[in-house]
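Write out this protein's structure.
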Amino acid sequence: MHRFYVENLSELNKSVIISGEDVNHIKNVLRLSVGDSITVSDGSSRDYECVISQIDDEVIADIVDIHDCNAELPVKIRLFQGVPKADKLEFVIQKAVELGAVEIIPVMMERTVVKLEEKKKDKKLERYRKIAEAAAKQSRRGIIPEIGEYMSYKAAIESLYDNSGIYRLVLVPYENAEGMEFTRSILSKAASYDEIDIFIGPEGGFADSEIQIAEEKGAVIISLGNRILRTETAGMTILSILGFILDK
């Protein structure tokens, strides 16, 4: 069933009003009609099953059922992705959303080769957010995952320790980490955390100083096996493993 997102919904509502770009998508792309069924999410893991009752400049749909969305993992996972070359970040965002991340933050690291142009930054973030929304619709997520602002590595690491009330696990997959038994022992406890944050290096990997900073801050350095993974593969690997462990 086609999925749309509308903020500020309440169980007291009897109908949903859809406006903006989604109206054109409903009318001219999907060619939906009055009487067709759609799912509307409130962006906080509640799904509203609806039937379209009016299509005009806005789309009005009557609510017929409300239930929790089962697509969200019980632990919030954020991906701090070292900015890769070309359009690889678009691929990473799309797949990270499909695999359950609640936020993806692009991080400028020591070995990042991309030069971030300030005048293009906002346009890039806008595009990334549209990719996240499309991926959320496709994978039937209960939320639209956030795309954070570009951050430096140091700022990203330090930001994790601002909220002391969160029971957080910070994972840094690294090719020189200990073997898989250690990784398995760490990931076996994944369900006990409120939030898991993952740091993935860019094409050139992490600098030694970045690993040292992460360790000093309490991050756990783990291995993803005996093969060297590309930056766009490493994040998907750990997200897939965590999804398998955490999903109900």
